[in-house]
Design goal:
Number of strands: 0
Distance between the termini: 73 Å
Shape: globular
Helix content: over 70%
Order of helices and strands: HHHHH
Structural class: mainly alpha
Radius of gyration: 21 Å
Number of helices: 5
Length: 149
């Protein structure tokens, strides 16, 4: 029973780490949506209006960032856009790793060290996912029909 618990805990931690790295690209749209939603709610739009406007703001941020990276030919502009997405991901990664490191590390110094390393790893992962263009496969027709000459 103990072995099963250890295996399930290891699987859960691995799944959680995968989710952190997979969702790191969406940190900036989430922060934008949260900020827009809080501002909208405080201005008196109500809960439903704030949720709708926050969702639209986050989705617009994500779409504009992806479109800007896709159509931009300038490497410097791509790096700037990817950096704008990577900085909030690194901040979120820092806080997640710092919170998780409190489970097993009693020393505050080592918690900070691991949190900084986690921030760098998650920020670089987010930056790499945006800056490295996906390779397109050449068109490969199923069959080539040749007409006899």
């Amino acid at each position: 029973m103990l072995a099963l618990g250890l295996a399930i805990n290891t699987l859960g931690i691995g799944l959680f780490c995968w989710a952190i790295f997979a969702l790191a690209v969406y940190a900036l749209p989430f922060f934008v949506a949260l900020s827009v939603g809080m501002t909208t709610f405080r201005s008196g739009a109500g809960l439903i209006g704030a949720v709708l406007i926050a969702t639209a703001g986050g989705a617009l941020t994500l779409v504009l960032g992806q479109v800007a990276v896709a159509i931009t030919r300038s490497l410097a502009l791509r790096i700037a856009i990817a950096t704008a997405f990577a900085i909030p991901a690194a901040v979120a990664g820092y806080h997640v790793v710092f919170a998780l490191s409190q489970i097993g590390l009693p020393s505050l110094v080592w918690r900070e060290v691991f949190a900084c390393l986690g921030a760098v790893c998650i920020g670089v992962t987010s930056w790499t996912r945006l800056i490295v263009p996906a390779e397109s496969r050449p068109f490969e027709p199923g069959r080539v029909v040749e007409s006899p000459s």
